[in-house]
Amino acid sequence: MGIARSVLHGGVRNECRSVTLAHRREWVRRPAVKGMSLRFSPLSWRSVSGRIAGERSTLIRTCGFYCLSVLSPPSYDFPISSKILFRCGTSSSSSFQDTALHGEIPISGVEDELVGYIFGKKKATDVAHAVWKHVVRRGDTVVDATCGNGYDTLALLRLVADSSGKGRVFGMDIQEEALESTDRLLSQSLAPNEKELVKLFPMCHSKMEEIIPKDTSVRLVAFNLGYLPGGDKEKTTMTETTLLALEAAVRIIQPGGLISVVVYVGHPRGSEEFEAIQAFISGLPTEAWICSKLQMLNRPLAPIPVFMFKR
Q1: Which residue ranges run through the membrane (predicted)?
Q2: Which residues pair with 259 in a beta bridge?
Q3: How far separated are the first and last CA of the chain, in Å rounded?
Q4: How many Å apart are CA 114 and CA 4, to the nearest integer?
């Protein structure tokens, strides 16, 4: 049995510590998961909090195959026995933002969505939204680089809006149909003063730097790639412009900020786009970025959440 390389110690060193057995031995005895393969890589996380196996007992024993991997620095694979799970220690920190710059990234509150995703009960976007809550603060400026039908835009607005009116969501989509759908959802869901915090632009996400005011700190840039749900499936995000958009996001994101990407590989150009994204992210310097993905192994067409955290 190999030792899983889960980082349990902080700092910028790519140093590894051991993974521990999960929870109580009596419920990991059941060999429901055969040949589970996890992919671990060095991260500068000091601790990962919460109950990663906190679902009800029936679901706990019937999980499928999944992959937790890190894109920067490069990762490596090794098999994990069906009785081996990983246990997350608790963290005394209550704020992602307060600890992120010190190399500590607790994920308390994300566990339900993560476990739900692993057991097929939650969507990739649910995981992304849960992570956003631990990055975005009231009054922040954020970017929805692919508005689609507006659900991400609305979720972001609810994270940044406060009585000060300082929070801003800059949303963009190249399809007018998408912006109309987003505007309609915002009108139905928000008070007029809240909706004023959202600025929508009919433009390609590769040009996001053109709409962000100079010297503005951007906490989060969100991408939900692929085609517009309910729209023309032939109109999809393109590899070339997505890479340009990621380069722009890397330039504007502030330290302690996050670039969140949900990649859909089910459409004809999706796999090509994902491979290009993965190659781009893998080349980011490890001293400045922590990048990871969550990928199903026996569902090759399932959406893939990717997170790029800037130290």
Answers
A1: none
A2: 221, 308
A3: 33
A4: 19
| Nearest Cα residue to 156 out of 180, 189, 123, 122 | 189
Q: What is the C-alpha separation between 258 and 280, in angstroms, rounded? A: 16
Helices 124-132 and 151-160, axial angle in degrees (round to 10): 20
Amino acid at 205: H
Strands (E), 63-177: 66-72, 76-79, 141-144, 168-172
What CA–CA distance (Å, rounded) separates 164 from 263?
34
Confidence of residue 108 (pLDDT cuts 50, 70, 90): low
> Nearest 5°: phi and psi at 282?
-60, -20
The DSSP symbol for 149 reads: T
Element holding 116 (H helix, E strand): helix 111-118
Q: Which tokens is 142 given?
A: 């954020």
d(CA 303, CA 279): 17
Query: What is the DSSP annotation of 37-53?
Result: EEEE-----S---S-TT
- Tell me the C-alpha distance between 20 and 283, whole Å: 30
In which residue are the tokens 């990871």 written?
292
Distance CA 182, CA 174 (A): 12
Give the residue-averaged pLDDT of 189-216: 96
Backbone angles phi, psi at 260, to 5 degrees: -115, 130
Q: Which helix (H) or strand (E) holds 274?
A: helix 270-282
DSSP string, 171-223: EE-S-HHHHHHHHHHHHHHS-HHHHTTEEEE-S-GGGGGGTSPTT--EEEEEE
For residue range 249-306, what is the model confidence (pLDDT) as tens digits? 999 999 999 999 999 999 999 999 999 999 999 999 999 999 999 999 999 999 999 9
* Mean pLDDT, residues 123-149: 96
**Cα distance between residue 118 and residue 145, in whole Å:** 26
| Residue 186, both tokens | 């915002």
Could you say which DSSP state residue 57 is in?
H
Q: How far apart are alpha carbons 25 and 28 in whole angstroms?
A: 5
